[in-house]
């Protein structure tokens, strides 16, 4: 959810080049053919039944709003799409106003190969935020064990001296995972969908991806020959800042975390949450400000005389309790303790209100204040201290997961990062709320403190062999099942696209595009 660039991965991923309506991928990738026009939906497919009249989406985060966007694309302009949201549009993408400027408190950084997020910006007329150079350090709870130099060659030689070629090999390992990951865009552009997280992962990376999900990142990387010291000193700080957890998270989400330590990362000008409101508007979906309390299976006689099934949503809004019927329902909020209380009734087999597993609490504390650089054990003068991102080792002395100076979501002209001698906004990630004592240790003084407690992503403790299903019932879908493989904005967008295709194919009984892994064979036959 929270990604930070790290200096020592200088190599680039395969180039992604857009050419008119096609996307071409460079030779470093296995994707060597063009992809069809991104805006092409499958709503024009031969209809064997009447189109759905009403679709409900529960949740207006990036998953729910992307689902509205893709469902509109697949089912056309006639269907009514309603998005239920009890809180604020954006979900775990959120900002906080401090001193008249907005700062990210939730999901903050996007990878250059996140093609859905890039496409959203193009369609919505948005742009990436101006880049501000950053500088990184690693903190063991007492002192800085590493501080990035302004000179690349110095950083390179330091890493080479201490860890050999581990860091270069780490980049190559992550690149090999991403190379397979990119296959999902091909499948989706050709209209393929998958009925479970496992089948979607298998289509991308075969058995190797299923193995990654069911072993720890530590196990996966040790098996690849990485040293334990490198895992402790370098990999763990990355997993702590991105997922608030150690290298004992699953290997797949670990690879996603390491990809979030690459160069070229970006964010949305004005705030990442703007993508959600933009997708909602673009989809022409209606926002229903209400909390869904129950989903019930209902049957009614149809025109042909046979029974037709519907889903009744019971919800509570400002006007009180109400209910409405839908042909298709997408649940785009986690069905887990503390995050949802939707009761499912009338289903056989029964659908649980809460699936196994729990979500991990990450506390984001935004402080506008003057950093106490001596807290970090450095002897540098505050006016010479330009470190922007402090990652931490996994030991008892590290009470925080990370400490980062923030830029506003809208970068002013001629903006440059100021040294630690000047007050600025810092974001601290921790598993527990910071005490007054903690704040006094980290800061010399402060003007404001803002705390946001997120149930931000699953607590990953593989093997997680009971991943929730995408299909809860015939036309009832669960988008957030994908988070148990990895939680990220792009993963939610991929799941949204998958479910829009899946809902379309299942509605029109087009089973040839569901759970098929023969895309490469078919394309070779067509060429």
TrEMBL record:
It comes from the Eukaryota. Its main location: other. Keywords: FAD, Flavoprotein, Glycoprotein, Lysosome, Oxidoreductase, Signal. The keyword Glycoprotein applies. Pfam families: NAD_binding_8 (PF13450), Prenylcys_lyase (PF07156). The keyword Nucleotide-binding does not apply. InterPro entries: FAD/NAD-bd_sf, Prenylcys_lyase, Prenylcysteine_Oxase1. It catalyses: [(2E,6E,10E)-geranylgeranyl]-L-cysteine + O2 + H2O = (2E,6E,10E)-geranylgeranial + L-cysteine + H2O2; an S-polyprenyl-L-cysteine + O2 + H2O = a polyprenal + L-cysteine + H2O2; S-(2E,6E)-farnesyl-L-cysteine + O2 + H2O = (2E,6E)-farnesal + L-cysteine + H2O2. Residues 146-516 form the Prenylcysteine lyase domain. It is found in: Lysosome. It is an enzyme of class 1 (oxidoreductase). SUPFAM superfamilies: FAD/NAD(P)-binding domain. Its EC number is 1.8.3.5. Its cofactor is FAD. Prenylcysteine oxidase that cleaves the thioether bond of prenyl-L-cysteines, such as farnesylcysteine and geranylgeranylcysteine. Only active against free prenylcysteines and not prenylcysteine residues within prenylated proteins or peptides. Involved in the final step in the degradation of prenylated proteins, by degrading prenylcysteines after the protein has been degraded. Belongs to the prenylcysteine oxidase family. This is Prenylcysteine oxidase 1.
């Amino acid at each position: 959810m929270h990604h930070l660039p790290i200096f020592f991965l200088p190599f680039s991923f395969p180039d992604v080049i857009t050419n008119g309506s096609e996307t071409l991928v460079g030779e470093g990738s296995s994707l060597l053919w063009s992809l069809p026009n991104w805006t092409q939906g499958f709503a024009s497919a031969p209809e064997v039944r009447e189109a759905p009249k009403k679709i409900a989406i529960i949740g207006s985060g990036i998953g729910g709003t992307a689902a509205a966007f893709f469902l509109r694309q697949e089912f056309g302009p006639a269907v009514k799409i309603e998005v239920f949201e009890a809180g604020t549009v954006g979900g775990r993408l959120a900002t906080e106003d401090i001193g008249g400027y907005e700062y990210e408190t939730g999901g903050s950084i996007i990878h250059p190969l996140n093609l859905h997020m890039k496409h959203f910006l193009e369609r919505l007329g948005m742009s990436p935020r101006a880049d501000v150079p950053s500088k990184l350090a690693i903190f063991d709870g007492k002192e800085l064990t590493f501080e990035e130099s302004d000179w690349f060659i110095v950083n390179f030689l330091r890493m080479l001296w201490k860890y050999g070629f581990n860091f270069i090999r780490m980049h190559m390992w992550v690149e090999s995972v991403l190379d397979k990951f990119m296959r999902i865009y091909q499948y989706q552009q050709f209209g393929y969908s998958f009925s479970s997280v496992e089948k979607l992962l298998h289509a991308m990376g075969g058995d190797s991806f299923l193995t990654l999900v069911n072993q720890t990142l530590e196990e996966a990387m040790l098996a690849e020959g990485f040293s334990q010291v490198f895992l402790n000193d370098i990999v763990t700080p990355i997993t702590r800042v991105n997922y608030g957890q150690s290298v004992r998270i699953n290997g797949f989400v670990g690879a996603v975390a390491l990809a979030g330590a690459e160069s070229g990362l970006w964010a949305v000008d004005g705030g990442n949450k703007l993508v959600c409101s933009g997708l909602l508007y673009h989809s022409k979906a209606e926002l229903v400000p209400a909390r869904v309390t129950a989903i019930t299976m209902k049957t009614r006689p149809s025109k042909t005389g046979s029974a037709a099934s519907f889903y009744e949503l019971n919800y509570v809004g400002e006007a009180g309790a109400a209910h409405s019927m839908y042909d298709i329902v997408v649940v785009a909020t986690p069905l887990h303790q503390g995050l949802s209380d939707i009761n499912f009734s009338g289903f056989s087999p029964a659908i649980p209100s809460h699936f196994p597993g729990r979500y991990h609490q990450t506390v984001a504390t935004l402080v506008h204040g003057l950093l106490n650089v001596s807290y970090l054990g450095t002897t540098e003068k505050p006016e010479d201290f330009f470190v922007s991102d402090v990652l931490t080792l996994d030991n008892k002395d590290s009470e925080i997961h990370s400490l980062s100076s923030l830029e506003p979501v809208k970068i002013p002209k001629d903006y440059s990062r100021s040294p630690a001698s000047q007050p600025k906004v810092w974001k601290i990630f921790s598993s527990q709320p910071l005490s007054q004592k903690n704040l006094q240790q980290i800061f010399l003084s402060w003007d404001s403190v803002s705390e946001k407690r997120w149930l931000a992503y699953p607590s990953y403790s593989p093997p997680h062999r009971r991943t929730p299903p995408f299909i809860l019932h015939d036309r009832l879908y669960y988008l957030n099942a994908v988070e148990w493989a990895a939680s990220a904005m792009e993963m939610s967008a991929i799941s949204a696209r998958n479910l829009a295709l899946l809902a379309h194919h299942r509605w029109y009984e087009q089973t040839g595009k569901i759970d098929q892994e023969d895309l490469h064979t078919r394309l070779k036959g067509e060429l």
